[in-house]
Amino acid sequence: MDCLNGKYAWMVKIGEKGQFVIPKEAREMFDLQPGNEILVLGDKERGIAILPREMQREYITRIFSGIEDGKKVE
């Protein structure tokens, strides 16, 4: 795990079924437990984001408010 000013990066390997394991350090940091739900967002230009349930409402609200206002969401 690399850390730079509170930003972390982990390398994971994608298995044959397209699955990967969230590293233990990340699971502990974000208190991810077996059975928790996560939201996976994808953008062809910016990549993939994985959000734990507690962060989903904030990000979904930000995304949809930009769409409703006719603005491009950054």
Explain what the structure shows.
This protein is an alpha+beta fold and 74 residues long. It has one domain. The protein contains 2 helices and 4 strands, in the order ββαββα. It has a two-stranded antiparallel sheet. A two-stranded antiparallel sheet has the order 3-4. It is globular and about 35 Å long. The protein starts with a strand and ends in a 6-residue tail after the last helix.
Jot down its keywords.
globular; 2 helices; two-stranded antiparallel sheet; alpha+beta; 74 residues
Short synopsis of the structure:
The protein has 74 residues and is an alpha+beta fold.
The number of distinct structural domains comes to 1
Instruction: Identify the strand order in the major beta sheet.
Output: 1-2
The N- and C-terminal alpha carbons lie at a distance of 27 Å
Helix tally equals 2
Percentage of residues in helical conformation: 25-40%
Q: What summary fits the major beta sheet?
A: 2 strands, antiparallel
Whole-angstrom Rg: 15 Å
Dominant shape:
globular
SSE arrangement, N to C:
EEHEEH
Low-confidence stretches: none
SSE inventory with pairings:
Layout: E1 2-4, E2 7-9, H1 24-29, E3 38-43, E4 47-52, H2 53-68
Antiparallel strand pairs: 1-2, 3-4
